[in-house]
Structures are given as structure tokens and as C-alpha cells.
Amino acid sequence: MLLASSFLAVFAPCSSPTLAATGGADEMAGYLLVDTEKVPEEFNAGFSLYAAAWPLLAQYPGHNFQTGLFGTWMHAQYEGEPPKDLYSDIEGGLGWWRDTRFPTETPKFIMGGVAVNFSEIANGPAHGAGDWDRPRGLYGVAQLSPWLLFPIDGLDLARGTCGELFGYGYLPLPLVEARKDSQGKELGSADNCWTLFLNTKSFKGPVCFFTPYFWAHSAIVEPKYAGLLLDKRPSAPNKAFQMETQWVPAAVETDAKNETYARVAPTSFPLNADDKTVVLHRLTSYKKAALWDAVKAWFDGGPPASGTLDPAGAWLQKVRSGGGSTWRIYAESTPKEQRATLDWKSFATPKALDEFSYGYEWSTELVQRAGKLATLPEYYKLRVEGEKRQWIAAEAREVPASTGLQKLKFDPPHEEAQPPYETPSAAKSCWKSPGPVAGPFTARLRDGSVVTYSWYRFADQPALLNCGLSKAERERMQTLVEKLHRNWTKEREYLAPPTRGKLAELDPAQIVRPPQGLEIGYVPIATRQEHAPVLRR
Hints:
Elements: E1 27-36, E2 47-53, E3 66-72, E4 74-75, E5 89-90, E6 93-96, E7 108-110, E8 113-114, E9 121-124, E10 127-130, E11 135-136, E12 141-143, E13 155-156, E14 164-173, E15 179-180, E16 186-187, E17 193-199, E18 204-210, H1 212-221, E19 241-254, E20 260-264, E21 268-270, E22 277-286, H2 292-299, E23 314-317, E24 319-325, E25 328-330, E26 341-342, E27 348-354, E28 357-362, E29 368-370, E30 373-375, E31 379-385, E32 388-394, E33 421-422, E34 438-444, E35 449-457, H3 462-465, H4 471-487, E36 522-531
């Protein structure tokens, strides 16, 4: 998902030719593809991975910017062909999104629960699709950790992050009992609580989870989806690992000879000590034996589960030196069939840097090195050979001055400050009744925002009051979570650690300590996030 924090409200107007000043809407977009081995189908109880986090662009280019870093899409597993016309998964990850309200050059992390065909989206506690009058995912994620505050805008990484590995994954926890009728047939929500686990320098362990109701609600609205979603289904172990880029600023111009050139905002990848780039590490899929079985036995009265993923229930997926790129440069008006791809492999070689680490080697001639970053070519010439159209890297001196591309500057545009995130304040709302037991408190993040949060009893947090559970079911969850809070601390190892590189660090303002007397069974919930007032010295 560095450099100095970006305060959108104080960007100065551009004083020299810029992409914004020329009215350009050109872009670079597409996918970077990863080649992996196949995983046995029985490893269908979640996944984990380590993804490199770094500043893709030297300057945040405005709210049209949208790109993830490397990650994956976890869909439900089916016997035989998957259902037609049904899209639902867990995605998200590290990146920048158009609705990110407090962006910087450093990526953020969001969850990404997608209900049937994007009818609802949950990105974290109090973050998702819709508004509070019609919440379409805003209540889809429940907070679990008492030590990590999850800002509404997404988890903030420490400034200066550049190539460190961000460990995360989703595993089911048996926090909810599947409902059954008198014949033992399951009814309503099943018991998959897909839980986000992190492994970072400053925090380790479970953070929050998608409520089963987030998925099951789609089946309530449309019964044909019953039993087809992640509330009941296991996870498909064979996933696509890619980097999805929707918009990086670019400019395309044609000279007097009718030859076409392009320039892209400086785009960089992190370098390690041996001048190579690692983007993914330790892609792992799990059986229920890795975690679920021990936790279920514990919750049923057995000894405490350690929380450490059992390697006997894990499949460490090998990577291969393949993959490629579908990145294209084009003007918005360019027909899709004429959108030319970059000659990616002329300057980037996809590599298995070891059997569990995927990344790149870079051309020594076309890719510039500076500090911890390798910067890709900025200039390209369009080569047309019959039906084939491709952008070939060029030197700045090879681009005719008449195109104006050399004078172009990709300065940040002037943008108005984004509005705050606000949660309901009515006295009778679920945010106030029964409401928090302590707070409000504030945390000032390095993205230039202030998060207001309060402490709620776990079972009384708004997400759980909106997930179709009875009071008895929520109280059972409360008892189980108190067990977790007593035994699973933020310093313990849960995911297997990386065998290369360093762990990324979270913005330390998100690491919180429960108030005295609220250490067990209470969680921090963000209720507002807004631009921080400028501190004057």
C-alpha cells in the first residue's frame, strides 16, 4: 500500500504544466500475474500470505488513483462447477482506493467482503457500502481484538514502509453455533466466522471477523443463494494471486509524424539487498486441523488452544518463474481492442526468488535504482505491427518535444478536504443503546486524521446487534471471546513467520490498551474519523 503524509486540504495549486492542468484522463491499468503450483482441494479452511508494502508512486496523485498491491481473492469452494451468475468472495488487501478519505503515498489495508454480485460490501468495522440509512455492509465486520484499533478508513502502516512484508490471512473461528431444527438440519447462519489474522512487527493475531449474517443475509433476500456463500461453504484453496491496477496517471500524445508516445507517473517497486524485488512470500492454505479443530475442542470444554497455526494442517504453496502483465496505457476514449500493452518483460523478469517467494529482477538499462526503490521506465513509444500494438520503453530524449511530455509534471492536484466518517449519534441507535462503556478517546494517525473511538462490551458492539443473533447467542460469543482475550495476546506467534525480509509495522497510534477493568471482553470501536487540525508551533 515513506514519504511525508499527504494533507489533501493543503495541496497547493499547480504552478507548472501538470496532468491535471492539461485535462488529461489517460491512465495505466491492468494486472500483474503470479504463477503458482496447485493446492490439494482438502486445504479449504482459509489462507495466509506475506505481501510487500511500498509506495508505488512518489506522490499521491489524487482520488482517481486506485490500485491494490499483490494479494488474492478467496471464493467459496463447490463440488463440481461453481454456480453461474454468482460472485462473492473475500478480497481487499493493501492498496489505495478512490473512496480512501485520508490517503498518503503509503498503502493502507482494508478487508474486502463481497456479498452476492456486490450487493453488499464490508471493508472493516463501520466501513462498507451504503450509508447508515441503508447500510449495505457497514455492519458486516465485528471487532475481536482488544489491542488494535481498526480505523474506519483502513489500517494505517508506519510512514517509511518500503518493501517490508505485511502478513495476513483469513481463517474460520467457531464463534457462532450453526442453528439446527429438531431433526438436526441447519437453519439460517452457519458457523464460519472468517477472521482476519495479522503478522506485523507491532501486532500479531486475530483482529476482527466477517459475521456469518453478512453472507447469509443474501440468502434471506434471495433463497436460491442459501448454502452457496462463505457463511456455510469452505474456501477454494486455488486462488489467483495478482496485483490489480485500475488507474495510474499517464499522458498519451501524437506528434506531427503521427507517431504516438506516452508518459506514466514514476512507478516504483521495492528493492532488497541483492537488487531484486519480493512481492509475495509464503502463500499458505489450511485445513481445519490447522486451527479450527483445537479451538472448537477448547470452546467445548477442552484445554486452551495456543492459536499457533499447526503446520501439519498447512500447505505451503510453491511459486514459479512465470506470470506476466496485462498493464496497458491508454486514453479513456480509446476502444478496448486498441488499448496497447506494455512490453513488460523487456524490463521486468518474473522470478521465483526461492520456492516460496515471488518477485522480479529488473533490467539494468531501463530501470532506475535509487535507495530502496526500482523505478520503471516513464516514457514509451507505441509500436504497431499489423494487429499487434505494444508500448516500448523509450528514453526522454527520444520523445519529440512537440508532444509536451517532457514538460509534464505529475504533481498532486488541488483537492478539497474529504468529509469525516461519522456513525449514528441518535440516543436510540445501536451505537448508543446499550452503547459504549468507556470513551470517547482519540488517536491521531500519521495519515493526517484523528480517529474517535470508544470501548464496547464485545457482545454489545453495533455489528453484533445487527447480525441476526439472539441475546443468548451473543452472550455465548461473549464467553468465548473472553477466553480468547485471556489467552491470545498480541505478541504471540500465530501465522508462521517469514523466512526472509522484515515485517512491516503498523502506525503505532492504532495499538491501544484497554482501560483498567476492561481488559477482558471489551473492544475498541471507531465511531468517527476526520482530518486532524493542523498543529501550530
